[in-house]
Amino acid sequence: MSEYRYMIWNDMKKEYQFPRICETTEKGANTLLFKLIGNDARKYRFKIVKVEKEQAKTIVKELKQKYKAERIHREISNIDFKEILELVKRNEADIDE
Question: What total of structural domains would you count in the chain?
Fold first, then answer.
């Protein structure tokens, strides 16, 4: 039997968002979404999606890497974002080893 998590999908951007929202129940994910963004959570673009636990772990990791790269890119915008993202991923792979 597979375990599942509920995450937030942005239907306009076609991507998962809010790595902090990775809940065991749909209601829990919805509650956290409202706590994070308030009534903007009512917008049709956000959907709560059921994801297998292992896939959810991967999505959360990738989102955190992307957001970290975006923060770095804001500080040193003369370096290409894709290059920064690749460096963040490589750095985390080195740490995991």
Answer: 1
